[in-house]
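Q: Entry one of two.
A:
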Amino acid sequence: MTILAIDFETANERRDSACAVGLAWIAEGGVVRRESRLIRPPELRFAPGNIRVHGIVPADVRGQPDFPAVMAEFLPDLTRGLILAHNAPFDLGVLRAGLSAYGLPVPAFSYLCTLQIARQVFPDPAGCGLGKVAARLGIRFAHHDAGEDAYACAEIALAAMRRTGAADVAGLTRVLPLQVTTLPPGPALPRYRPAGAGSLAARALSAARRDAAPEAERLRFAVRGSTGNRYEVALEERPLGLYLRCSCPAGRNRRRCRHVDAMVDGDVTDLISRNFADVERLRQLIAGAPAGHRIEPERVRRVQAA
């Protein structure tokens, strides 16, 4: 039987927003293979809280494969094997939601939760979160990196196997009050489309063909500076095209600033106005204009004073 641990990181609160996956295979009492991949989620809406956890920003995944392309390599092992995950309902939920989001059938999956295993084998008043259990067991890893988390999950299962005397990881169900959970297969669902996604490109193209001022006036972003000051990044229509102007000292002195770069890259880490959809609209305006009116990111990055 194939036994492998899995961990997902997500872009926002949606289960179908996976932006990274890590896997670790177990055989002969040890971890024999490790893989990790970045994933482009269906929409590039990254919640600041999620970014603070895993450090992945939209610019990191914009050119990466989508969920089906990444997971195609691993689905055979996942469907015929035993999956381990720490807080497994979350990671299995992401796996199933990710397939459903692209209209793909959801196969049956069988899993053990290493959080439940840790609570039985390594109980502690401090809790049994992945980082806490790994620290108590001396497992060295970089928390919230999907590949590292999958490795730590696998090592916790192996430690539990050794502590209980189970013959293998699957054998933990014979020495603990624990059962393998099998999720039934699910039907293919209509492919998920982010709200308004179907018209984003059309709006961008039409905005570039006509006077873009009304569109530009709506794209304003409040951002947090390195010292905590609040600045405004605004998209403006100029005779030569669209320009981003920032109210920070660098922007006022006609120098390129990191706040403009962040908006162009889709990095919402310091976005305090929380208009995340507008960040993607900005990207579409930059990338979707027709050839005669195309605005390259390098030009948009040039901050022009009013």
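Q: Entry two of two.
A:
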Amino acid sequence: MYAIVNIAGQQFKVAKDQHLFVHRLQGDEGASIEFDDVLLVDNDGKVTVGAPTVKGAKISAKIVSHLKGDKVIVFKKKRRKGYKKKNGHRQFFTKIQIENINV
């Protein structure tokens, strides 16, 4: 059984006991959260597609930890002008574990 759910503006394919890295969510580590923006549910070959969401479907998850992603280097340069700019960015992520898919 799997589902496609909208979490923080992004769509993820989730299954039970799966670990997922999503953009930073509010809540403490160990807290339980629910997502009700479920777009599709596949229950052993029986597919239910929402219009736009599946009615009554909820995804239960637990926040495992808050962390930062790898550094991404942003380098800008204009040739022959002496302009160089180097920036780094680290995105904040939340690691969640999917506990249950309720239809």
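A: Comment on entry two: Residues 4 and 82 are 48 Å apart (CA to CA). The chain has a mean pLDDT of 95.
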